[in-house]
Design goal:
Number of strands: 7
Helix content: 40-55%
Distance between the termini: 17 Å
Number of helices: 16
Shape: globular
Structural class: mainly alpha
Strand order of the largest sheet: 5-7-6
Number of domains: 3
């Protein structure tokens, strides 16, 4: 489900350009995020440097280099997905396609999620209309139920909830409002979290979403199957809607809406098939879900960047040979290693979201 991580964003919600900035900085100089001159090199304040790094990690666009020469000041490199998305010949180098925002939304909440408060809000909170205190109370109760986790400080919980609301919804203009609250987040364009002008309360937007492309929905479904190691070759549409961590929960889609998106993609994809052999609609696949998911993005964006991967493989570091100057930018102070690539991370065992949460808590540190 998620890592035990709270308030690591320095109270900043993701701003326009920050996702691409995280990739670009890591691609040009993997060591810059840990150096004292980072604010000068990146052109933002010290706290914003940490925030940009966090949002790049949370969206699975960059990752800590497992072969960093100094573990106390680790290097951060693009993931294979991050490079495929924002690299020079990537799927959407300038983040111009509306589908990219939905893809980033999915990645922020996909396993391993660095935003457990957000994960619970989207996956385990079912109120139709609510206030921030309602959401805080519900998330607190969910976290208290995870016996292996120490509860975060209330202020950390409030910061994560505030970042969630500011990321996806407008801030009421009553009283004094900070400039950080006013600055837009690109994910507000999704309009998945709305605030009532009459009451000021919030609600997750249900129903069809005109800006959500069907290939992104299908990609998310296959990405989910890869991340959770679902066995077999079929899955019911119902489970892709109602189980925690699924596209139905994250995109707030019902069965009919998810089915419509998957059908439209399966009609043009030989590796996917929609059927209802026993009266229940199901998705079937004839190749590895990760490979199909990557192929869908190739087709959707009209580009096939080298070493592009989805699922867990997409979270791995990209090969150094694909980065500018082999991963050594103009500000780099490290020397290039001979291997050129990092070893693959250990593939996760298939666990349910609840089991996943508990297992990850075993070795989690303090936020």
């Amino acid at each position: 489900m998620a890592e035990r991580s709270f308030a690591r964003h320095e109270t900043f919600h993701p701003r326009y350009g920050w996702f691409r900035k995280a990739y670009t900085v890591a691609a040009e100089d993997p060591g810059v995020f840990g150096r004292e001159e980072a604010p000068v090199v990146i052109g933002v304040g010290k706290n914003m440097v940490r925030a940009i790094r966090f949002w790049g990690l949370a969206a699975k666009l960059i990752v800590e280099d497992p072969q960093s020469p100094n573990r106390r000041a680790p290097h951060f490199v693009p993931t294979r997905r991050g490079h495929a998305l924002f690299g020079p010949n990537g799927w959407d180098p300038y983040m111009e396609d509306p589908g990219t925002l939905w893809l980033l939304h999915w990645l922020l909440l996909a396993r391993r999620c660095r935003l457990p408060v957000w994960w619970l809000a989207f996956n385990e909170f079912h109120a139709v209309e609510f206030t921030e205190p309602d959401l805080e109370e519900a998330v607190t109760a969910q976290l208290e139920a995870v016996a292996a986790w120490a509860m975060p400080h209330p202020s950390s919980l409030k910061k994560d909830l505030s970042a969630l609301v500011r990321t996806y919804s407008s801030v009421p203009r009553t009283g004094r409002v900070s400039i950080d609250d006013v600055l837009d987040s690109p994910l507000r364009e999704l309009k998945i979290l709305e605030r009532s002008r009459a009451t000021g309360s919030l609600r997750f937007r249900l129903g069809s979403k005109p800006t959500l492309p069907a290939p992104i929905v299908a990609h998310a479904a296959l990405d989910y199957l890869d991340r959770y190691g679902r066995g077999g070759r079929t899955v019911t549409i119902s489970s892709l809607v109602h189980e925690p961590g699924t596209p139905g929960r994250v995109f707030r889609l019902n069965e009919a809406e998810l089915l419509e998106s998957l059908k439209s993609v399966a009609d043009d994809c030989d590796e996917l098939r929609i059927s209802a052999p026993a009266g229940a609609w199901q998705l079937a696949w004839s190749d590895e879900p990760e490979a199909i998911a990557t192929g869908l993005l190739h087709d959707y964006y009209g580009a096939s960047p080298k070493d592009a991967r989805s699922g867990l493989a997409g979270d791995e570091p990209v090969g150094l040979e694909l980065l500018p100057q082999g991963g050594l930018g103009t500000n780099a102070t490290v020397t290039k290693r001979a291997d050129g690539r990092r070893s693959h991370k250990r593939r996760l065992e298939a666990l349910s979201p609840a089991e996943d949460m508990l297992q990850e808590a075993q070795g989690a540190g303090v936020a």
